[in-house]
TrEMBL record:
Function: Required during maturation of the 40S ribosomal subunit in the nucleolus.
InterPro entries: AARP2CN, Bms1/Tsr1, BMS1_TSR1_C, G_Bms1/Tsr1_dom
Pfam families for the chain: AARP2CN, RIBIOP_C, Tsr1_G-like
Native source species: Calidris pygmaea (Spoon-billed sandpiper)
Record's compositionally biased regions (Basic and acidic residues): 47-56
Cellular component per GO, a single term: nucleolus
Segments of skewed composition (Acidic residues): 406-430, 438-452
Name of protein: Pre-rRNA-processing protein TSR1 homolog
Localization per record: Nucleus, Nucleolus
PANTHER family: PRE-RRNA-PROCESSING PROTEIN TSR1 HOMOLOG, RIBOSOME BIOGENESIS PROTEIN
GO molecular function, one term: GTPase activity
Biological process, per Gene Ontology: endonucleolytic cleavage of tricistronic rRNA transcript (SSU-rRNA, 5.8S rRNA, LSU-rRNA); maturation of SSU-rRNA from tricistronic rRNA transcript (SSU-rRNA, 5.8S rRNA, LSU-rRNA)
């Protein structure tokens, strides 16, 4: 009996999940019996900090960063640190650089001035402020000297014109400096004191507005009085230093003095003794040093001569004047101060010293098979007999000479197989013209050439005019090629005189850059046996940088004045230093002397619009290095295969691939092109992307044909091939149109006249109006070998 109003469960009653007993954490631990799981526990337990603790931690981090910045400011230019290196860069042809130097030298009586002769600079020593500065003036018009000095400078002092600021040459110099990496800088405006006060204020406002684009937060320092020069020096000493990554991890120095000791075998090669202040990192005598623009070298020993720019020099009575004269004389003549109190810090250990080997010496017998068997020798001899040919040779010709004589039928089938596809038609045309000239002279007896004397006016023999016309014609041809490559990318005409299967035998049909497989180790050139490759480049780079940060290297510390004995240096290095060019040295990290394949991500500089073709010789400024190379251009994509670009595109970022010494990123790169008159044009800027020899660069060719007859699902296409054998050879390759319609070759049609050979294409699923059929063929391309060339 159920009471009225009682609840009765319906068909939709909730069904709860049953309790899974024995699977909670306590029971699982009991079942484990004390065993610990294989999963490793984290080394540092993550703790949830309270608000007060988080605030305190952030305050400590800010305090540490502030103290690090202050310590860096105090060490630079102090007694224990290197002198504050300031490079003066005039940005205008009428900028008063000499007035700037005169005002900076005219300080109070507490400042000691040491002139440096031909170097175009001086040193300020201020014992009262415990500061010392070294000012170096960059040579006007020498862009490479400015860039080399900016690599090691602590501060750049730009000298502006009070009216115009900078000219076109100054704008070009600023573009290069910003692309390479700009250290701390200051803007000085000497002159303008003779203008009326109102015009002076207007000129300064105009100049401040002009520099807003390049230097948004910069401050202009007028430089007309000694007080203004003191304010500028104070600003240089107290401003925050900007870091360049490629020099902070390497020891470097700017030569203060140098001496060349010729070797015993030759006077052209010897030991270069370079004196200067160590900057950046500790310098190890067993590491290699790179002299910018000249190459890599080993060191034999490191000496510690007395500091010529000491704030508190220890001088014996009666020798103060002679010591000052010695410093000035050494700086003028570029010799090293090797005196009795020179102390040898360290000597190189042959067991620990880095090797100068930059290339692998390939073994020609490596990978060779075993000695062939008797059956293989008999097969090879039979194939040689089958391939023997009968050639008509003059009487008395030996077998060795007859082997080099080429038959006329084979002469037309041989090709140079050069990568420059555009030069083939020109070679064929020249050959045809020469053959036509020879055929016209057949049957005629050789006659002596008749010569006569003519008087030619000087205006017709203007060599400079002819050279200018040739350069203009060559540039016009390059513009045409670039334009055609932009309108019809990778399209080439099928040759008429050479079978397509022979001309394009290195290529293969590629359906997709993204999905089609391609082995990066396939068909490698011989030069790849000479380079080095990392198993994991990123891991090696991280390990080297971690060792620099944590381990303390034995050697000359930062701020020491040392003399480096660099071995096997050519005398041209010393000659360039005597001419007034800067001598900059960088220590190399492990493996940085070895050759590999470097990939740079660059973008075309807007100031240059001339066409730049692949494999043209360019000048590279990569970090602290400077070398020449002939690069390849390729697209920058996320795929594993990258299409070759024949020209440097102005509207996209491209990857430049070269053989070059290994450099660990980050590092900036500048690409220059040398003109016929010796001037260098900046064509692209960027950074080092990777060191990867396995990056696949594929050269693509597109053969196009014209639709002759169009049916519902098939079409007849002609002018793609001119031989029935070529049609059958390329039959497996899939064809497509520019709108993405795809198909395959079914069969060749037409007469045997090569002009009318056509092909039936099947599975074309849409209209063919206004389209052409294309076949894409690719082959793996490696960049040409290039060396670091000093200049």
């Amino acid at each position: 009996m159920v009471a009225a109003g009682a609840h009765r469960p319906g068909p939709l009653k909730q069904q709860n999940k049953a309790h899974k007993g024995g699977k909670h954490s306590g029971s699982s631990q009991r079942r484990a019996g004390g065993r610990v799981s294989v999963k490793a526990q984290p080394r540092r337990r993550i703790r949830d900090l309270s608000r007060v603790d988080r605030r305190h931690q952030a305050l400590q981090l800010r305090r540490q960063r502030k103290e690090a910045v202050l310590a860096e400011k105090r060490s630079l230019g102090s007694r224990d640190g290197p002198p504050h290196l300031v490079v003066l860069v005039p940005l205008h042809s009428s900028a008063a650089a000499r007035d700037t130097l005169r005002l900076l030298q005219s300080q109070d009586s507490a400042v000691v001035r040491v002139d440096e002769g031909k170097a175009g600079g001086f040193t300020l020593l201020c014992p009262r402020l415990k500061q010392r500065w070294r000012f170096v003036t960059a040579q006007a018009g020498d862009l490479h000297a400015v860039l080399d000095l900016a690599k090691v400078a602590d501060s750049l002092l730009f000298i502006l014109d009070p009216a115009d600021g900078w000219d076109s040459a100054g704008e070009y110099c600023l573009s290069c400096l910003f692309a390479q990496g700009l250290p701390s800088y200051a803007l000085a405006v000497p002159g303008g004191a003779d203008l009326p006060p109102k015009k002076r204020i207007d000129a300064r406002k105009k100049l401040a507005k002009a520099i807003e684009k390049r230097f948004p937060e910069a401050k202009l320092f007028p430089l007309n009085t000694e007080q203004e020069s003191s304010l500028l020096l104070r600003h240089l000493a107290t401003q925050k230093q900007r870091h360049l990554a490629f020099r902070d991890r390497r020891a470097h120095l700017l030569a203060y003095a140098a001496e060349f000791v010729p070797g015993q075998e030759s006077n052209l090669v010897g030991t270069l003794k370079v004196s200067g202040f160590v900057r950046g990192q500790t310098l190890d005598v067993n590491s290699l040093v790179h002299i910018v623009g000249h190459g890599d070298f080993q060191m034999s020993q490191v000496d510690a001569p007395p500091d010529p720019l000491s704030l508190n020099p220890r001088v014996v009575k009666g020798q103060k004047r002679s010591q000052d004269m010695e410093i000035q004389d050494d700086s003028v003549n570029g010799t090293d101060e090797m005196e009795e109190d020179v102390k040898v810090l360290m000597k190189a250990d042959p067991n620990k010293q880095e090797s100068l080997q930059s290339e692998v010496v390939p073994d020609p017998m490596e990978g060779e098979q075993t000695w062939p068997t008797e059956e293989e020798l008999q097969e090879a001899e039979a194939s040689l007999k089958a391939n023997r040919k009968v050639v008509k040779v003059p009487k008395g010709t030996s077998k060795y000479q007859a082997a080099w004589i080429v038959d006329d039928e084979e002469e037309g089938n041989q090709e140079d197989d050069d990568d420059e596809d555009d030069d083939i038609d020109d070679d064929m045309m020249e050959e045809a013209v020469s053959q036509e000239g020879e055929s016209s002279e057949e049957g005629e007896e050789p006659a002596e050439e008749e010569c006569e004397t003519m008087t030619v006016s000087e205006c017709l023999r203007d060599d400079q005019y002819d050279e200018k016309v040739e350069e203009d014609e060559e540039m016009l041809e390059r513009y045409k090629q670039e334009r055609m490559d932009e309108m019809f990318p990778d399209e080439v005409d099928t040759p008429r005189d050479v079978p397509a299967r022979v001309r394009f035998q290195k290529y293969r049909g590629l359906k997709s850059f993204r999905t089609s497989p391609w082995d990066p180790k396939e068909n490698l050139p011989r030069d790849y046996a000479r380079i080095f490759q990392f198993q994991d480049f990123s891991r090696t780079r991280k390990n080297i940088f971690r060792q620099i940060e944590k381990e303390e290297t034995e050697g000359a510390s930062v701020g020491w004045y040392v003399t480096l004995h660099v071995c096997n240096v050519p005398v041209s290095v010393m000659e360039s230093f005597k001419e007034g060019k800067p001598l900059v040295l960088f220590s190399l990290l492990p493996h940085e002397q070895k050759m590999s394949v470097l990939n740079f991500l660059v973008r075309r500089h807007p100031s240059n619009s001339e066409p730049v073709k692949a494999k043209e010789e360019l000048i590279f400024h990569c970090g602290f290095r400077r070398f020449r190379a002939s690069p390849l251009f390729s697209q920058h994509t996320s795929a594993d295969k990258h299409k070759l670009e024949r020209f440097l595109r102005p509207d996209a970022a491209l990857v430049v691939t070269v053989y070059a010494p290994i450099t660990f990123p980050p590092a900036s790169v500048l690409l220059f092109k040398q003109r016929s008159n010796g001037m260098h044009d900046l064509i692209a800027t960027g950074s080092l992307l990777s060191v990867d020899p396995d990056r696949i660069v594929i050269k693509r060719l597109v053969l196009s044909g014209h639709p002759f007859k169009i049916f519902s699902k098939t079409a007849v296409v002609r002018y793609m091939f001119f031989s029935r054998e070529d049609v059958m050879w390329f039959k497996p390759v899939e064809l497509r149109t520019k709108w993405g319609r795809r198909g395959h070759i079914k069969e060749p049609l037409g007469r045997f006249d090569p002009v009318f050979i056509s092909a039936v294409l099947g599975r074309m699923w849409s209209s063919w109006a206004g389209e052409t059929a294309n076949g894409m063929f690719c082959f793996l391309l490696r960049d040409p070998w290039s060396h670091e060339v000093p200049f």
